[in-house]
Design a protein that fits this description.
Low-confidence stretches: none
Helix content: 10-25%
Largest sheet: 9 strands, mixed
Order of helices and strands: HHEEEEEEHEHEEHEEEH
Structural class: alpha+beta
Bound molecules: uracil
């Protein structure tokens, strides 16, 4: 693992901050000054110190998965296969999905064992943007765009927060539309219930992004990869 990635993951700062620490000689690897941020270390065997104190290896893991339909967003389920089982290279047993997508929803799902990060991404106070692509049974028009913007009654205590609806296509002949929706909350079945509230039905749903992290278009459904240092850094800025 690269030294700068290790130090960022261990919470010593952003990638540029940890590079600064290395440059200033405040980091030692097995008692030696490292030659640069890119050197590889083995967190299980090498002793890394910052200002003379050992950096404990917490082994946080962070993955992005393109969730396939048919998998349940849970760490365990007695009936259905769970998304965590798709992370074949995982080292830790305590991984969990950050929030939930419905069983039939596809797309971006973050999987980690970092509870603090998950909490701050899901906190209702943070209003992290989530962008979805949807195929909808119904012809979406400017009227629906305005209703989404105003907030909808989806039979919760409160109206939904303003959501952006981008109409990609709307075909009166087939009665089908394709849209992108940006929401700042994460209510149960939120997108499906928002379309129900305007008399339409979601036929297909895929999450494209969550805050600063976008689904990697190279990942087919069921595939995953580790988050990059840049993605982690962007997520940490939300905390
Ligand atoms: N909204 C939904 O209706 N379903 C999801 O899986 C995510 C958002």
């Amino acid at each position: 693992m690269r030294l700068d990635k290790f130090l960022t993951e261990m919470g010593l700062g952003t990638r540029s901050e940890v590079k600064g620490l290395i440059k200033k000689g405040r980091i030692r690897v097995n008692g030696e000054k490292p030659s640069g941020p890119e050197i590889k270390i083995d967190p299980d065997h090498d002793r890394v110190e910052a200002d003379g104190r050992a950096v404990a290896y917490a082994a946080w893991e962070y993955y992005m998965l393109n969730k396939p339909a048919g998998w349940v967003c849970a760490a365990r389920d007695s009936r259905d296969p769970v998304v965590v089982d798709l992370i074949a290279d995982r080292k830790r047993k305590d991984l969990f999905p950050v929030g939930r997508l419905d069983k039939d929803t596809e797309g971006l799902l973050l999987i980690t064992n970092d509870g603090r990060m998950a909490h701050s991404l899901l906190s209702p106070r943070k209003h992290v943007d989530k962008v979805y692509f949807a195929r909808v049974r119904g012809v979406v028009t400017e009227k629906e765009r305005e209703l989404f913007q105003q907030g909808l009654d989806i039979r919760d205590e409160k109206l939904t927060l303003p959501a952006e609806l981008k109409i990609l296509s709307a075909d009166p002949q087939t009665g089908l539309s394709q849209v992108e929706v940006t929401v700042r909350e994460g209510r149960y079945h939120q997108i499906k219930r928002m379309f129900q509230a305007v008399g339409m039905e979601v036929a297909y749903l895929k999450r494209l992004s969550m805050g600063p992290v976008c689904l990697d278009s190279r990942l087919a459904p069921g595939q995953y990869r580790e988050l990059t240092v840049e993605e982690l850094e962007a997520l940490r800025r939300l905390m």
